Amino acid sequence: MEPFGAWKQAQAMVRVTALASAVFVMLLVGAPGSGERNDYSSVSEAHRGCVEDAVDSIVRDAVRTQKRMAASLLRLHFHDCFVHGCDGSVLLDGNNSEKLAPGNNNSLRGFEVVDALKESITSKCDIQISCADILALAARSAVQSVSASHVTWSVPFGRYDSKSPYSNLTKDLPGTEDTMDIILKKFAAQGISDPKQVIALIGGGHTIGRTHCSFSRRRLYGNLTSISALYSDPQYVTYLRQECPKLQTDEQASAIEIDLDNTSRDSFDLGFFRSLREGRVAIRSDMVIGDPANSPDVRAAVTLCTDDAYAFYNTFASGMEVMGSAHILGREEGEIRTNCRRPNGYSSGGGGGGGQHYAMP
Ligand code: HEM
Ligand SMILES: *[C@@H]1O[C@H](CO)[C@@H](O)[C@H](O)[C@H]1NC(C)=O
Ligand SMILES: *[C@@H]1O[C@H](CO)[C@@H](O)[C@H](O)[C@H]1NC(C)=O
Ligand SMILES: *[C@@H]1O[C@H](CO)[C@@H](O)[C@H](O)[C@H]1NC(C)=O
Ligand SMILES: *[C@@H]1O[C@H](CO)[C@@H](O)[C@H](O)[C@H]1NC(C)=O
Ligand SMILES: *[C@@H]1O[C@H](CO)[C@@H](O)[C@H](O)[C@H]1NC(C)=O
């Protein structure tokens, strides 16, 4: 059988940009263990209908109960893919976990929903789907649920799960203090090298969800003259300074939440880009993407996403396809975890195969 048949087939069913196709071809040719991965993806493809229904129903319920959960699930997939590829590494528990690493600690959420997804798929569909695939599906259902299903993309199966966390690689995640240049480099390192997709992904992520005051401090009290335009809306800055006063302790600052989208925090829409145009964004990196001193292609990408909802949604969707294919593991590097929080073979007695790399608290 043709290696990666299922990946190719799923890709063929949807609109993909030339760039996305190119990235996929590179992955297909370059990844080891191709036949083995195909075994997993063709087995899981046979259960696609059941798996997608199970994910959709649980994610919709979770988002109905708490709108923000859509944002939290999208962010989990993003933080999974940027750290050692889309391999479920973000889900592993333990003292050395990615969850506890700076940037993620006290910030990532939605892990209980992922547990419920794993359990539901296993019992209803009688198949083990990798935790990395579950995150990819959950992110898509989440975005559908807050965009009236206007925004969707293709999610092929076949991502193997890692056998250990990679907390040493969380530095690959973009940070709020990064320059535009560094942001572009970090996305390119994950195969996302089209600035339009970078901008659409950031804006799509931040049109929903919240941030803590701790992440807005540099934006408020740091030296902003290095950003060429001080184009913030003074009223918005006043509002942020009230919410996030300078003399807060770290603990206080971590407790207060601000909407990333000043106009419509719970719907996937143009709200973020409209807020950006008005100078009303909470974190420094969001200001940086609107810097008029950025390169023409970055500025064009921001203009496109601000003016054309259809182009923004489509570019976000194609960007999610590229992001969701970042550094997929081959079978000899990965496994299909039965519990998303620990590697297979982990045993509390310490004798398990996973225990070699990994310690549970
Ligand atoms: C330059 C790149 C990015 C930076 C620096 C960044 C940074 C952040 C920060 C600091 C927060 C708030 C965390 C907290 O206060 O606990 C946040 C939240 C969020 N980010 Fe990003 N982000 C970036 C790109 C993205 C992308 C590409 C996506 C998804 C496609 C995304 C999705 C989200 C979502 C959905 C939330 C809200 C999560 C929630 O409310 O639970 N971000 N981001
Ligand atoms: C994570 O946050 C907690 C506070 O909630 C803190 O005690 C702990 O030291 C932090 N962990 C790391 C690894 O920074
Ligand atoms: C990161 O940690 C993994 C194992 O947890 C190790 O195999 C890898 O070499 C480390 N990478 C770096 C860059 O330190
Ligand atoms: C702020 O940054 C500018 C340009 O990088 C520099 O000239 C200035 O001295 C800095 N001001 C402070 C207070 O750090
Ligand atoms: C949006 O910004 C204005 C100030 O420009 C502020 O009064 C308002 O509370 C903010 N709303 C949200 C949801 O951030
Ligand atoms: C994890 O950290 C806690 C608190 O620092 C410690 O008591 C525990 O022994 C650690 N567990 C492992 C397996 O290292």
UniProtKB/TrEMBL annotation:
One annotated Gene Ontology cellular component of this protein: extracellular region
Pfam families hit by this protein: peroxidase (PF00141)
Bilayer-crossing regions: 12-31
Cell compartments where the protein resides: Secreted
EC number(s) reported in the record: 1.11.1.7
Binding residues for heme b: H206
Cofactor mode of binding and number, as noted: Binds 1 heme b (iron(II)-protoporphyrin IX) group per subunit.
Residues the record lists as binding Ca(2+) 1: D80, V83, G85, D87, S89, E98
Protein name: Peroxidase
Active site (UniProt): H79
Family, per entry: Belongs to the peroxidase family. Classical plant (class III) peroxidase subfamily.
Its job: Removal of H(2)O(2), oxidation of toxic reductants, biosynthesis and degradation of lignin, suberization, auxin catabolism, response to environmental stresses such as wounding, pathogen attack and oxidative stress.
SUPFAM superfamilies the record matches: Heme-dependent peroxidases
Site (Transition state stabilizer): R75
Binding positions for substrate per the UniProt entry: P174
Entry-linked Gene3D superfamilies: 1.10.520.10, Peroxidase, domain 2 (1.10.420.10)
Binding positions (Ca(2+) 2): T207, D261, D269
GO molecular function: heme binding; lactoperoxidase activity; metal ion binding
Any single GO BP term: response to oxidative stress
Residues covered by region (Disordered): 342-361
Main localization category: secreted
Species assigned in the record: Ceratopteris richardii
Record's keyword terms, sorted: Calcium, Disulfide bond, Heme, Hydrogen peroxide, Iron, Membrane, Metal-binding, Oxidoreductase, Peroxidase, Secreted, Transmembrane, Transmembrane helix
Segments of skewed composition (Gly residues): 347-361
Top enzyme class: oxidoreductase
SS bond list: C50-C125, C81-C86, C131-C340, C213-C244
